[in-house]
């Protein structure tokens, strides 16, 4: 798994690209507080090499909690900026700091 960030000079956004290996996986989505934890519209596209990838424009200078939804199971990003406990979910979430 990997995250890349590209800050735009002309706009107050960051292009965040999420990449997830997809061996044996049917579908992957990114869910977090930036999209109300909804998988609708946040699915990653499966590439020919089996990897899932997607880019999202997010406002910079903010912090977001998120997880991957891999075939219906929540998975944290190993390369996230950090992990943070979430009392509502009763688990740790990945954190993206822009």
TrEMBL record:
Keywords: Kinase, Transferase. It comes from the Bacteria. Transmembrane segments: none annotated. Residues 18-97 form the AMP-activated protein kinase glycogen-binding domain. GO terms for molecular function: kinase activity. Belongs to the 5'-AMP-activated protein kinase beta subunit family. This is Glycogen recognition site of AMP-activated protein kinase. The lineage of its organism: Bacteria, Pseudomonadati, Bacteroidota, Flavobacteriia, Flavobacteriales.
